[in-house]
Amino acid sequence: xxxxxxxxxxxxxxxxxxxxxxxxxxxxxxxxxxxxxxxxxxxxxxxxxxxxxxxxxxxxxxxxxxxxxxxxxxxxxxxxxxxxxxxxxxxxxxxxxxxxxxxxxxxxxxxxxxxxxxxxxxxxxxxxxxxxxxxxxxxxxxxxxxxxxxxxxxxxxxxxxxxxxxxxxxxxxxxxxxxxxxxxxxxxxxxxxxxxxxxxxxxxxxxxxxxxxxxxxxxxxxxxxxxxxxxxxxxxxxxxxxxxxxxxxxxxxxxxxxxxxxxxxxxxxxxxxxxxxxxxxxxxxxxxxxxxxxxxxxxxxxxxxxxxxxxxxxxxxxxxxxxxxxxxxxxxxxxxxxxxxxxxxxxxxxxxxxxxxxxxxxxxxxxxxxxxxxxxxxxxxxxxxxxxxxxxxxxxxxxxxxxxxxxxxxxxxxxxxxxxxxxxxxxxxxxxxxxxxxxxxxxxxxxxxxxxxxxxxxxxxxxxxxxxxxxxxxxxxxxxxxxxxxxxxxxxxxxxxxxxxxxxxxxxxxxxxxxxxxxxxxxxxxxxxxxxxxxxxxxxxxxxxxxxxxxxxxx
Amino acid sequence: xxxxxxxxxxxxxxxxxxxxxxxxxxxxxx
Lengths: 555, 30
Known about the structure:
- The longest helix of chain A is centred in the first third of the chain and has 39 residues, at about 85-120.
- The N and C termini of chain A lie far apart (about 45 Å).
- By secondary structure, chain A is mainly alpha-helical.
- In chain A, about 55% of the residues are buried.
- Chain A folds into two domains: about 10-490, Amino acid/polyamine transporter I (Up-down Bundle), CATH 1.20.1740; about 490-555, no CATH class.
- Chain A has helices at about 10-20, 25, 30-35, 40-65, 70-80, 85-120, 130-140, 155-170, 175-200, 205-215, 225-235, 245-250, 260-290, 295-300, 305-315, 320-360, 360-375, 385-415, 415-425, 435-460, 470-490, 500-520, 525-545, 545-555.
- The longest helix of chain B has 24 residues, at about 5-25.
- The relative contact order of chain B is 0.12.
């Protein structure tokens, strides 16, 4: 059967931009900029964009277009036995991230409903204390990782709405996606412009923008700032999820690669940069109203901005309840639209992956993935859901970086890069040449390895967010490593029937978790020895222990 | 707002939007 195609060639660009632009552009980038030197952060950010973002994006587009397969099959065409990289991207990137991302988007559905309610009752329900409203009313939050509390029906309904939308959009394949993305990308852009105009015309907005764009050149000399810039570019462009590979696989073989990578990257960064004006001008206003500094009202980066700080600013807008409620609905609708195209791109990656490897009807696979995803989301719909969401979010970023590193090393060091760049450059008016080879072969792997080392050391200095280490071992290290081994198993499906191999995998996973536990408790190098020993025992078990012997022991 | 912030705003606008326009112009399969 002929492979599906995008309706028009530019549909791919819009879909990829929609996937790249997500909540992070609004709730993460502006804070990264403000906290890492303001305007001066743009220098490492642009360098990171040009030396890692665009080259890696071009690489992922190339893999999809060249091999006409999604991530679970494309890597294996580059080199035998490497499809596990694509499976890992699908599991740790696409699946695990979508499963909590939709819950988070569901909260914006809850907020939209509460805003409509506020319109009729005459006051926005979070106007007194937005933090308390978010944690007590929306999440009914309990900070106990192993005591789930009651199910939060509001979160379940929100999650159901999001999955329903995702299912309907993906049902008919990429042709329909190509049309929908014009709206899911266009509407947030229009809303951002509206919010900027409203923001900068408010009293005190200048102080907010000053906080956003101050110039602290000292910070350029800090390695931490450079790593933050590379991290921001990497996560922002949907790299390492397999999304771009899946989307590109529906493009014709002669499609332009470089210019697509270029436009997607710049459009994504432009959106981040402009979103900062909407956010900080409004926060500047709120600081002026409360008579405090912008840093005080901004709070912490992340979901607190979307669900606490910005709603609080909206509740203090001049013009009464009608204006406030309309801005609240508009803002949360923007959050929903920003998130939904990221969510369906991730689900599409899982669907493409499964379809390319196992075959089957799109409708059936899409329905199955959506039902499984919705059910998985229940974990995050209990009173302690935010803790697990936060932990999984933090650890899956390790997975994404792992995929980025593996794909750069695979192409850079185990494939003919000269042939690739000739292929890539021949498609486009923009030529990357040797620069691309240097970026893929040296710059990207070195930066990612450095980031790994620095983050790894930090990780064990203090348990993430001070959470219980057992929760970090289960939802963090345990989940990540298990997904990696499942990815290996999906590549070598014959191992599923071999108890010796399965025991080997289980020993290696247990070793990882045990070593991580040891690091948390003692923070010395002995954990590494445990890790190596566990992997060695796992490998030996997988290689030499025959199924028969295990069956004998079991019986 | 300081001059630096205003200059950054303008430069950022030109750079990012310029990047998108340049890419679109160079795209072979429009």
